[in-house]
Design goal:
This protein is α+β, with helices and mostly antiparallel strands and 433 residues long. It has two domains: 166 residues, Creatine Amidinohydrolase, Chain A, domain 1; 252 residues, Alpha-Beta Complex (Creatine Amidinohydrolase), CATH 3.90.230.10. Helices cover 36% and strands 16% of the residues. It is built from 13 helices and 17 strands. It has a six-stranded mixed β-sheet, with helices on both faces. A three-stranded antiparallel β-sheet has the order 7-10-11. The chain has a three-stranded antiparallel β-sheet with strand order 8-9-12. Strand 14 and strand 15 form a beta hairpin. It binds glycine (GLY) and manganese (II) ion (2 copies). One manganese (II) ion (MN) binds next to loops.
């Protein structure tokens, strides 16, 4: 494991919270994600099922977690099923979790081998009334590839057609939206790695470096720190920054351009999400600084409004209004155009066309109840931007905000953001030309 052991109390509490939401006499089953194939006999690394990890801390393929809070046999209220090792597996793939190790990580007392699953599952299905199974209900998910959970849903419904089926995702989204202190600490670890990577890059960026060299600088910090990239990094110089999901990262950074860095680390499956925009030569031009400070004002004011009770859709509207005002000041849109605009196609959308915030946690666009008012314990990004393709110029600024009872905390407030501070750091090491 590349990360420090996690207090199993985190997973235990998560299971207790889930048990309280489940209908009486129902059980829940969660499967590890597949090791996805590449080509020929290649596979990708395991990207664990976030819900399974949330409830067990288990980071191994082919694991199954079963929760049945009302089971008559106390020992069968929480069961973890693991892949059993053998000499061949040990030779080719190395160590697999022993039952004791799995108990220690998860706090689950009953750990069985996978070969026991069909028998135990059938016995418990004969005892329970309902089954909670997992489907990907993220609003923006494109579900084409069938997961192990999805195959399990299909198989289970075929074998047991008369049980009451429930959507586990409903409960998981509700639980995962509010982060516990232990989770916040893990997100802070991810944020600290991101900050380290960014500071390294601040020292590194200068005319002539390539976007992929910048990516390598981040990788150096993230991997050394036991983490990794939370998502495909966006390292976009000049006009590339106007492509919202630019991931080619193969261009040369040129004097006079900006480079947009949307790069965050993950640590122990928890994510951070940061964007900063730097002047490649170490100094913003006047126009670049105007746009930069416009985005910075929207950023600061939007953060100020991220408080308990706020609806995400209202925050979005307010950030759009703030951006519209800035776009008028920047001369990018005209008052007359705003007055007669089609409300479904407002003028600002030409320069700011994405969401200003999303939940963050075990997934970078985390699951949650985003139609409900913000609550203490939510972690959300704040990420306004202005994209001007005709000027080959774009600025986005992003940070991660913890909502608290008394307002909010910027989890990356130590990452330089003022234009002057960025210039000062870049020039102190003699970057400018
Ligand atoms: N890095 C992806 C996002 O900002 O949402
Ligand atoms: Mn984001
Ligand atoms: Mn981002």
């Amino acid at each position: 494991m590349k990360y420090a052991p996690i207090d199993p109390g985190l997973f235990k509490t998560n299971r207790e919270r889930l048990a309280k939401l489940m209908p009486p006499k129902s059980l829940a089953v969660l499967n590890s994600n597949d090791m996805l194939p590449t080509n020929a006999d290649g596979t990708m690394r395991l990207w664990q099922n976030s819900d399974l990890f949330y409830l067990s801390g288990i980071d191994q393929e082919e694991s199954i977690f079963l929760l049945y809070p009302d089971a008559s046999d106390e020992k069968r209220r929480e069961i973890l099923f693991l892949r059993e090792s053998n000499p061949t597996l040990a030779t080719w793939e190395g160590h697999k979790l022993t039952k004791d190790q799995a108990r220690e990580i998860s706090g689950i007392k009953t750990v069985l081998w996978l070969s026991d699953f069909p028998r135990v599952f059938h016995q418990l299905m004969c005892e329970c009334d309902g089954v909670c199974l997992n489907t990907n209900e993220h609003q923006r998910a494109v579900v084409e590839v069938e997961t192990r959970d999805a195959r399990f849903v299909r198989d289970c419904r075929r074998r047991y057609p008369l049980h009451d089926y429930h959507r586990l995702a409903r409960y998981m989204h509700r639980l995962r939206m509010v982060k516990s202190d232990l989770e916040i600490d893990l997100i802070k670890n991810a944020c600290a790695l991101t900050a380290k990577g960014f500071r390294r890059v601040l020292e590194f960026v200068k005319p002539g470096v390539t976007e992929m060299e910048i990516e390598a600088e981040y990788a150096q910090e993230f991997i050394r720190g036991g983490g990794g990239f939370a998502y495909l990094p966006i390292i976009a110089s000049g006009k590339n920054a106007c492509v919202l999901h630019y991931i080619d990262n193969d261009q040369v950074c040129r004097k006079g351009q900006l480079v947009l860095l949307d790069v965050g680390a993950s640590y122990a499956h928890y994510h951070s999400d940061l964007t900063r925009t730097l002047p490649i030569s170490g100094r913003f031009t006047r126009r670049q600084k105007e746009v930069y400070n416009a985005v910075l004002r929207v950023f600061r004011e939007t953060i100020r409004r991220m408080v308990p009770g706020k609806l995400s859709k209202d925050l979005q509207k307010e950030a759009e209004q703030l951006t519209e005002n800035e776009l008028l000041e920047l001369g990018l849109i005209k008052k007359t155009a705003v007055k007669k605009q089609d409300p479904d196609k407002p003028a600002f959308k030409q320069y700011f066309m994405h969401g200003v915030s999303h939940p963050l946690g075990l997934d970078v666009h985390d699951v949650g109840c985003t139609t409900e008012p913000m609550q203490p314990g939510w972690v959300l990004t704040c990420e306004p931007g202005i994209y001007i393709p005709e000027e080959e110029l774009a600025v986005r600024l992003e940070t991660d905000i913890l909502i608290t009872e008394n307002g909010n905390i910027d989890l990356m407030s130590d990452v330089p953001i003022e234009a002057e501070e960025i210039e000062q750091i870049m020039n102190a090491r003699g970057a400018s030309e």
